[in-house]
Write a structure and sequence with these properties.
Largest sheet: 7 strands, mixed
Number of strands: 7
Mean pLDDT: 96
CATH architecture: 3-Layer(aba) Sandwich
Structural class: alpha/beta
CATH superfamily: Alpha/Beta hydrolase fold, catalytic domain
Shape: globular
Oligomer: single chain
Number of domains: 1
Distance between the termini: 41 Å
Length: 273
């Protein structure tokens, strides 16, 4: 499904995981090139009283919906999320949003719109700042072009690019994530996501905004695709937000994962009461 894929089309066929039957809903949104297992990995145990909904966003995971270039604006992805909440019959219930990278930008958009009763927002490793195609995301332009011209074999070329070397010198986890873009499900057919998602901008203007609900921004040291300075920028823009800086995924993987799970669980418990 490509042209004319509306938010309602997406919601009608979205692959999602739904856990629990509590009053408060937790919407968990993955990052670019990922799927719903990414945020679900942060919640091995679901706190009582919650309903967790984790979808594959359009052109990701098990979603059959792709769309056109304009469908990968954060505003459209937020429309998709809102349509999904309606289709699940939970749009009017208390909501907590958890987003990773691209998912964090979608979660922030939902919070800024004010259309839902959002009780808290956990924004993990944001990547979009004030300008489209920032330097730390330009590797995706290279990956997209190589998928168009060489298909999965393009991975052999991307590793020789300056953009890839810049990442691999800092983070093997980041470099692995880049290489994996070539073997993601339907990577060639879905290349439009890599060509357009990194053009999004999440922070506009210099005046801080005070969210109406608790917000926690999470960044990690040594992450060249999700620089810590972007998390700090979001924290500065979101007046009154909390900022948590995690250890490097490469240098301290166990501590990074343990802290990520702990932050997620504690945030959901606090915001659902």
């Amino acid at each position: 499904m490509t042209a004319g894929a509306t938010a309602e089309d997406y919601a009608a066929s979205a692959a999602r995981t739904r856990i629990g039957d509590g009053e408060t809903v937790v919407l968990m949104l993955h990052g670019l090139g990922g799927d719903r297992q990414q945020p679900l990995g942060l919640l091995p145990v679901v706190p009582a009283g919650l309903t967790v909904i984790a979808p594959d966003q359009r052109a990701h995971g098990g979603s059959p919906v792709i769309g056109e270039a304009e469908d990968f604006r954060v505003s459209q992805l937020a429309d998709d999320a809102a349509a999904l909440l309606r289709s699940e019959g939970v749009a009017d219930r208390p909501l907590i949003v958890v987003g990773i990278s691209m998912g964090a930008a979608v979660a922030l958009q939902l919070l800024e719109r004010g259309d839902h009763d959002i009780r808290g927002a956990l924004l993990i490793r944001p990547a979009f700042g004030r300008t489209p195609w920032p330097e730390h995301l330009r590797i995706f332009r290279e990956v997209a072009a190589l998928l168009r011209s060489q298909g999965p074999d393009g991975v052999e070329t991307v590793v020789s690019t300056p953009e890839y070397r810049r990442i691999s010198e800092v983070s093997e986890a980041g470099a692995t994530s880049v290489r994996e873009q070539f073997t993601k499900p339907e990577a060639e057919r879905r290349v439009v996501r890599l060509e357009n998602v990194p053009a999004n901008v999440s922070i506009i203007g210099d005046t801080p905004w005070t969210p109406p609900t608790p917000v926690t921004v999470v960044g990690a040291a040594g992450d060249p695709v999700h620089p810590l300075e972007i998390a700090r920028l979001w924290h500065a823009h979101l007046h009154g937000s909390a900022l948590i800086e995690l250890p490097s995924r490469d240098e301290h993987p166990a501590q990074y994962q343990e802290a990520s799970i702990d932050i997620t669980y504690r945030s959901l418990v606090e915001w659902s009461h």
